[in-house]
Amino acid sequence: MASSDTTPLLAGQQPTSLPRHNPNLNNNNNNNNSNNPRHWSEETEDILGPDPNANGYQNTGAGYRRRGPPPPGSSSLPGNSSLDAQRFSGRDRPTGLKRILNCCCLPCRQALYAFQNKYTKTEKYSMAFAGLCLLLAVGFLCAYVRARDSIPLSGKNGICTSRECTIVAADILRDLKPEIDPCSDFFTFTCGGFVDRETIPDDKAQIGYFNLVSKHNQASEVIRSILSPATNNVQRGKDDAAKRNLVKLQSLFESCMDEKKMSEIGVKPLADLVQKMIKVFPATFSILDTEAPASSVSAAMAHLRDVNFGFQSASINRQKLQQLGQEDNVDDGEEMFVGEIQGNGSDEKIPLHVSVDDELPGVEDTLASEEHHNLDKRGNAGPAAAKAQREELALAITQLAWVGVTTMVDFDVDADPKNPDDNVFKLGENGLGLPSKEYYQEEKIVNIYQKTVEDMFAIVMGTPTTDGEDAASAISKSNKPPVVDWAEVAKNVVEFEKLLAAISSEQEDLDNSELTYNPRTLSEITELIPAIDWSLVLEKLLTSGSEVPNPIIVSSPEYLEKLNALLKDAPAMTLQNYFAWRLIKTLSSGLAVELRKPMQQLKAALQGVSADLVTPRWETCIDVVDNSLGAMAGHYFIEKMFQGDSKEMADSIVTSLRGSFVKGLNQLEWLDHPTLLNATEKIDLLIQKIGYSLESPDVRSADSLEDYFKDLGIDKADFFGNQIRSKTWQTNQTLGELGKPVDKAKWLMSPQTVNAYYNPSANEIVFPAGILQQPFFHGDNPEYLNYGGIGVVAGHELSHAFDNEGRLYDAHGRLADWWSNSTLEEFKTRSQCFIDQYGNFTVKDPQGRENHVNGKLTLGENLADNGGLKRSYEAWAARFKSDPHGNKFKNHLLSGLEDYSRDQLYYMAFARVWCSQRRPAKAIESLRTDPHAPAKWRVNGAVQNSPHFAEVFNCKARSGMNPDTKCDMW
Ligand SMILES: [Zn+2]
């Protein structure tokens, strides 16, 4: 239930409205999903392509297309002679049996000559006639075989001149950079034209087909148009539920677009939430309490400076925290938050831990009370104080969770990996404000982040703009801003997060289903982390009367143990500041643009985008609708965009991939028989879903959608409130699954999503309608293009069933060991080859330094890319062979691309999907957080491992794309 960061600051996966397992719910910077579905791509919702009217793109109703004729030169053949020589090369060239049959005509002629010398004239004539007939028959046979296996240049598999063919050919040519040798850098060969032509918009971190297609889904008349008030007219005659749904969608969109109203409302709703939080989690010294007198705030400030000074000497303690997993206890006399009291003339070191009283004390009481300065580091001011803090922590983290704000732990309800028919309660880790723990070691970024925290606190807490009062006069009337130094508050928060980062698990460990499967009882969890009252946590999250979940799956017991040490020593004031920051950061996306400026500056630093340019509001608002009511919007998307036989065609492609995969498994020598049987069963039982959800809800039915979202209230005058209600609704949907069987019909992506996924606990592959567009798929495309696009995607998802994560689950979606020892050893050896290969690839950071790809983090995706490319080719080749004249499957050639064989075009279609550019800062962020390798290496890494690629492009041994070492798994 880590449902916090919907702000586009931290790029996550494509959002969906479907609550359970919503990638947003579980994909904060550090999540705990032990059996999270594998996605085909992590390209993000906030980084959309350029305006549809820019760059010459227009909507043709079937994908992205250039407006007008192809650019000059693109319709002519590429002038590269080395490529000319490859015409009809590779497997399309007659070889083997075809050559033997070509030669058979000569012996026939010799036999005829011998017969002519032995017999009478009449006999000779008869024999000659018979021989001639035989010769003709053999000749015809030879001609037939040759014709069947070579490229037909006419008929159904001849050159296609239809509009769709002309457009797709022009698109491929325009993206090419033919002067680049495909054997030295295939990505640049296929995408160099795209990279030269497209510019990353200032407000975006990247641009690629992925983003362009996503944007097309949203920007065309499809979703944007249905959100327009004018659509009401179009909907006349529709049933009532359809009308009400439309009003709901439009209300949410309007509330988001109404920035004037958002400015009028100001920060009050967010500031009020902070005040509610501090009632739940009070601190003896509170900077944030707006009702406290100025003198109390001044005392709290003095105390805050002391605490922050203590943080300065805490680096050694940070190291200690990191070591905690290896040590029995921290109870060796060292304090985590030790500093010297400044300004009181004393240099005596004292613990700065502060506990909480039942009531907020007056400042005089606080200063007079030695007790507050002399608590031991466990907070043992007495059983009552300790108990109070345990309860208050439980209340704070659960109340924040209900409004979609995660803290140091997060909650989820999801299929039990060991028993995937039942849902289970999961407890994971979370709570960092920067995208990953590595960032906390970068001084420059940390400084920018700290300034962001400071500025946002000042905006939300220091300028109470209520009742139409302007900020300046509000400050003059308030006694708070002059005494609060928000820089100190920010420092306090960031120092705490540094400690949190130090105890956080590595991303690749959190992706490991075995490492993160740790069943614990409630009492065992309480023993691990007694600083929080876990009974109260469950009471506040689950419906009353629910049984205590048993077991609870803990992602990392070590993390909880370390967190306990951190919480025991953290001053209550620091925790209060941290909780306030989590609220502000997560919910600031509901504020007017001028109140979010510091967040934009942080995004600029992290992703390299412009600090001054924000994403066009309508784009953001379509994302908001997609996040909250995605399935409802998807109803209109599939109505307009997913008709005809697309679903059947895609279904047939996916089915052929399954066949190819089973065939491939049988050819793998390293897979022993028992493991092969298990693997084959896994393919046999695999569920494939294409298009959109048919139940829970039925996206085709307005009634079903209305019922599904009935508890989510939308007010067109209250954007902030809509955001909160949506998050609470999603949280409720997620937690409500506990105690119920797993809903197998549920989709984790909305229909318009441009992505696909494999869900290991359901053993299912899922393709939303949104991805069935160019350049991935089109009904009029030749199949070699569709197989290079959606076919590879399907092969990728299938391969996930057998990657380093997917292999841990059996055919029924259970986390179970079904591998023989020797086969597993071979799997590990082969995996290491991929880890080493991708670990050698680099991307440049903003300073131009090369940074290595994390071969371990990206292993699963790399295995999937490689398996997908290989299996999809084989599936296509089998279909082409079975129907060389295109009576059943289209494999026509494309005008202007005659220089390339179908095989070559298959690989070019695969690479073209990844044509993109990314800002260096964003590239580094992805390197640390994204399990997918950078686009260039997704292409080049996969073709480097393909002997068939080297063959069809005639790549010399040891050329860039044809190294000696080739990694191979599936
Ligand atoms: Zn994937």
Automatic annotation (TrEMBL):
Keyword Acyltransferase: no
Compositionally biased tracts (Low complexity): 17-38
Key words, A-Z: Hydrolase, Membrane, Metal-binding, Metalloprotease, Protease, Transmembrane, Transmembrane helix, Zinc
GO molecular function terms listed in the Swiss-Prot or TrEMBL record: metal ion binding; metalloendopeptidase activity
Cofactor: Zn(2+)
Residue ranges annotated for the Peptidase M13 C-terminal domain, each copy included: 755-968
InterPro entries assigned to the protein according to its UniProt record, in alphabetical order: MetalloPept_cat_dom_sf, Peptidase_M13, Peptidase_M13_C, Peptidase_M13_dom_2, Peptidase_M13_N
Presence of the UniProt keyword Hydrolase in the record: yes
One GO term describing the cellular component: plasma membrane
Residues making up the signal peptide according to the UniProt record: none
Protein name as it appears in the record: Endothelin-converting enzyme 1
Organism (species): Linnemannia hyalina
